[in-house]
What does this fold into?
Amino acid sequence: MTQTARDLDPAGSARDLYGVELRRQRQVAGLSLDRLSDIVNYSKTHLHGVESGERLPLPPISEKLDVAFGTGELFQGLWGAVKREHMPRRFEHCLELEARAVRFQEFCATLTPGLLQTPEYMRALFVEGNPEMTSKEIDGLVAARLGRQEMLRSDSSPDLWWILGEAALRQAVGGPAVMREQLAALLPLMRTRNTTIQIAPFAAGALPLMNGTLILLTLPDNSITVYQEGFGYGETFDDREIVTRRVRKFDHMKACALPPRESAALIKATLEMYESCEPLQT
It folds into this structure.
């Protein structure tokens, strides 16, 4: 049964609060859904879904709504609350620090990191990892992760540096078509003004950090916080001794990984492998 605006619980859900506020601002402005659709360039169906709590407000709709209604950063702030609502609790502190970081560095051994994932790659991971979830809940996780990627397009984006294990290129998440799209999406970000991607190849042998994910977050005061994650756990550290050891390990990974140009060549070679895996047409 489709949820209506009067069923929303703005006190208990950030998504519902967003929907209630959208309806209120639209009615105050005297706009129909059709008219608002024309202004923000989002479909009437999507806007109605956001108002009724059935859909998440996918970026960059929040910025467009704030401009349309003259509400400053109201909807952008509400979107931040919606994102946190759909993040694992153990990741919340890391997410808060990420929003303030001037430098973001991450190593991921076996998967493409969340900030670099395509929507279909995300969906494949979430569906496989959460078989008990409904499609609506999966949509929420995808939208929240896409929201994190706003930093890639921001004028104030921090310096971003990723090291991926070669296994992240070889593990066929979602099948050949999903992997082709995912690997192709990495190539424009290999070396830009504020992004660097390196691949740690199998040929490098045993390396530190091979069994999980490590994130280093440098804040404006030059302090560094570590977020480390493995299967079923995630924890932040700001103890100086622990941070120093993790930074040293990450620097070692940088030295062992391929430079961006050679990393791009390896990605392109792996892309050809997925092209050859296309199923035969009968």
DSSP finds 13 helices and six strands in the chain. The domain at 90-276 is CATH 3.30.870 (Endonuclease; Chain A). Residues 176 and 278 are 7 Å apart (CA to CA).
